[in-house]
Amino acid sequence: MHLRGPLRVATLGVGLLQGVRAQFGPPNSASNPLRIWTSAAATYFNDSYVIGNGRLGATIPGGIASDVIHVNEDSLWSGAKIDRVNPDANANMGQMQSLLQQARNPEAARLASFTYAGTPVSTRHYEPLGDLQLTMNHSSSGTGYERWLDLGESSSGVYYTVSGVTYIREYIASNPDNVIAIHITASKPGSVSFNVHLRKGQTLNRWEDYSYKVGSDTIVMGGESQGKSGIDFAAGARVVASGGRVYTLGDYVLCDNADEATIYFTAWTDIRQKDPVTAVTTDLSNIGGKSFANIKSDHVADYQTYFNRVSLNLGSSSSAQKALSTPKRLAAIGTTFDPELVVLYFNFGRYLFISSSRANTNPPNLQGIWDQEMDPQWGSKYTININLQMNYWPSLITNLADLTSPLFDLLNTMHSSGEKTAQSMYGIDTGFVAHHNTDQFGSRHCTPGQLWVLNLVAMRSGVACTPYI
Ligand SMILES: *[C@@H]1O[C@H](CO)[C@@H](O)[C@H](O)[C@H]1NC(C)=O
Ligand SMILES: *[C@@H]1O[C@H](CO)[C@@H](O)[C@H](O)[C@H]1NC(C)=O
Question: What molecular function does GO assign, one term (predicted)?
Fold first, then answer.
C-alpha cells in the first residue's frame, strides 16, 4: 500500500507512542527463541538464572520484593598453596609395581592407600563470595511476573506489577567493564525504592570479617577464605540513581523514590589485587560515571562477538510448544520432540562457556562461578580426569578457540610443580605428572591424590579405595 504523507506521519506517531509504552509492556519472552524464561521467581538455587563475565558470577532468583543474589569471584579458593606430595611414594613404587605384576592387587591397593594419597589428602576447594541482598520497598505480591535469561545478549531480567506500578530489573555481568550491574526501572516516576546489603551468606556470615559503608552510596564486605593463610576477599556495591535519594544506614545502601537506579557490584581477592578493598572501591567509584545503557551496549557487543559465531537450526517447534515456559517445555520434551528447545540448550552451553572462560580468568571449575556452598560437592575444584576437559570439549567446534586460554594458563601453572611431582613421587627427571584433581594453584599443589593406578587396582580387584576427594 502506498501511504500518503499525513497518514504516514500519523502511523509514525502511533509507533512512537507504542514505543514508549512498550518499554513497560509484557516482555513476551515466548517470542524470543534465545530466551530461557518462566513466570515465577526461583524457589531454589538450582532454578535461578546465572550470569558471568569470566571472573565474576551471579546466581539470580529474581524475587519480587526480596532478591538474594549469590555472587562469586573465580579466584576465591580456600587457604594458600600447599605441597601434598606423599614422602613415601617413590620408595614404595617398586613394591607396588611388583605386587601388581603378581596380581596381588589388594595388597598393592593397601600399600597405595598409605603411600600414594596426597598429604594432606585434599586439594584446596572453591568458595562462594557472598550474597547481594536486594530488598525492594514494596509488597512482595505482584502480578504479570516474568523472569528470563536472554542468551542472545547475555542478560537476565524480571518483570512484574505491584500496586499499579510495573517494574523491570535487568542484570548483566560485563567483561569489558569488569562489573555486575543491576538496573531497576518503574513505569511511574519516583517509584524505585529499595535497599542493598552484602553478606557472606545466610549460614556463612561468621566468615565475614568486616562490612561497612563508604561515603553515601557504597558498601563493602569482606574477609578471608578458610584454611591457613587464606585468600583475602572484598566485595562492594554502589547505587547510582536518577531522581530520589541515595544514602547509607549501617552497612546498607538505601534508595528512596528514584525514577530509576543502577546497582554496581564488584569483588576482588588478593590473588589479583594487592589490596582488594581499595581495588573494589576504586572500581566502583570509576564505574559510576558510565551509564547503564552504555555499559550494557558495550557488554552486548563484546558478548556477541563470541555468541554470534554459530547458529544451529534443527527445524521449527510448534507454536504451542513455543508458547510454553522453559520448565514446561523441559517437562514435555520427554514425550514430544521440541527442536528449538534443543537449540536453546545448545546455546545455553555456549552461553555458560562464554560467561566463565575469558582471557586472564580461571577456567570454569566443577560448579563454575555459580557456587553457594562453602563446602561444595567435590570441592568445586578441577577434576582433571574428565570434567575440566568436558567444559572445553565443545569450544573448538563452536569456534571459541580464543576463549580456551584459561585452560592453557592452568596447564602452565601445573607444569612446573608437575615436574617436581614426577621427580619426587616417581624418580623421573624429565616430564611432568598431574593426578586427577587440581586447584587454582595447580603449580605447587599438583595433586598427588589417589592416582589412576590406585583406581585401576581397586577396579580390577574389587577392593574399594578411599573416594577421591
Ligand atoms: C533443586 O534443589 C532442591 C532443593 O535442594 C531439590 O529438592 C531439587 O531436587 C533440585 N532440583 C534439581 C533439578 O536438581
Ligand atoms: C518503605 O516502606 C515503608 C513501609 O511500608 C514505608 O513506610 C515507606 O514510606 C517506604 N519508603 C519509600 C521511600 O517508599
Answer: alpha-L-fucosidase activity
Q: Where are the domains of the chain?
A: 24-76+128-307, 89-119+404-461
Whole-number Å distance between alpha carbons of 74 and 72: 6
Give me the amino acid identity at 179.
Answer: V
CA-CA-CA-CA torsion for 102, 104, 107, 110, nearest 10 degrees?
Answer: 100
108 DSSP 8-state letter: H
Q: Buried b / exposed e across 37-72, counting CB within 10 Å, b at 16+?
A: bbeebbeeeeebbbbbbbbbbbbbbbbbbebbbbbb
| One-letter amino acid for residue 328 of the chain | K
The predicted-structure confidence for 111-163, as pLDDT tens digits, reads as follows 988 998 888 888 889 999 999 999 999 999 999 999 999 999 999 999 999 99
3-state secondary structure of 219: strand
pLDDT tens figures, 372-405: 999 999 999 999 889 999 999 999 999 999 999 9
Ligand 1 interacting residues, C-beta cut-off 6 A: 44, 46
| C-alpha pair distances (Å), 416 with each of 71, 148, 315, 327, 430 | 32, 44, 49, 46, 11
Question: If you ran DSSP here, which 8-state letter would residue 397 be given?
Answer: H
Distance CA 405, CA 92 (A): 38
Output the CA 257–ligand 2 centroid distance in Å: 9
Spell out which residues line ligand 2, taking CB within 6 angstroms. 137, 193, 256-257
Nearest CA to ligand 1 atom 11: 46
Residue 375, phi then psi, degrees to nearest 5: -125, 70
Residue 110 CA to ligand 2 centre (angstroms): 67
For residue 446, how far is its CA from the centre of ligand 1 (angstroms)?
Answer: 33
Locate 441 and state its grid cell. 594453584
Q: Which ligand is nearest to the CA of 372?
A: 1
| pTM for the predicted model, two decimal places | 0.90
Report the CATH architecture of 24-76+128-307: Distorted Sandwich (2.70)
